[in-house]
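queue> holo job accepted (fe (ii) ion)
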Amino acid sequence: MQNQTLEYQSCIQSSERVSWRLDELLPGDTTLDFSRRFLSDALTGTEAIGFLSAEERLMLNQIRSNSYAHLFLFLEEYAVALASQRAGLELHGNATHMRALLRFTEEELKHQQLFARFTGAFARGFKVVPALLDNQVEVARAIMAKSNLGVLIFNLHMELMTQQHYQETVRGNKTETLDPLFCNLLKHHWLEEAQHTRLDFLEAQKILAQAPETLDAALAEYSELLQALRGTLNAQLELDLRTLEKAVGRTFTDAERQELTTAQERSYVRGFIGMGMKAPLFLSRLRALSPIAEQHVLALAPTYYCD
Ligand SMILES: [Fe+2]
Ligand SMILES: [Fe+2]
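queue> job finished
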């Protein structure tokens, strides 16, 4: 218990060290530079679409990047619910655990506001107003109907994957010149997410120490959540293609639409689900929870284009 509290204390200290202010990172009146790509092709898969012109591929990259920002806002709706619920359990309990979890909650709310500001600036400057999913509250409620352990494992996956996106496609990207403002935004998101991944793990350990028999059901819930996320990604993809058609000013033929849908579905699913499934840190954390958890994820990985 004492060791665990030191871990929570260390999360608070790291969080205080890297904390940033929303108004400084992204002022409300920010204007975006639409001459550049925002996200790496590794996450948008737009460059391989042969029938689009270079200008149209740039627009698709930007639409996908805007949806990426929006999907974080979307997913953080349940993360706020999860972190605040875990914090509430420590009321009159361990104040250090509670402080760390309240910071986690506050940071996720701040991230939602950051991403909302970005999509607002995007809508003001892009050729057309992009269509974005708006059922995040309904989805968050459905996710939170699962056990905390199932949601914590799902969240550990999502947050470590965010880390991986930043490290591999932004910080470690030597081949593409991406929009510096968007890269900076992802960097600051990443700085705070690093503590969240540690807290997901600590909270999952806490549950398993008290109720190890709940693991199997939690892993089944994790699988269901991935499937549901795939549905959400496909729904956003449908909206992205509608936005792209409006932006390029023509309707795609059936063959073009098919090519776009196949390539972009793969890019979405791999980027938002598969990419994290064999990440060494995710697997080592799962192994530390239970070798069964690691095996469960490895068995699912091929379904999500993780090879
Ligand atoms: Fe976040
Ligand atoms: Fe987070």
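queue> The chain is about 75% helix and 0% strand.
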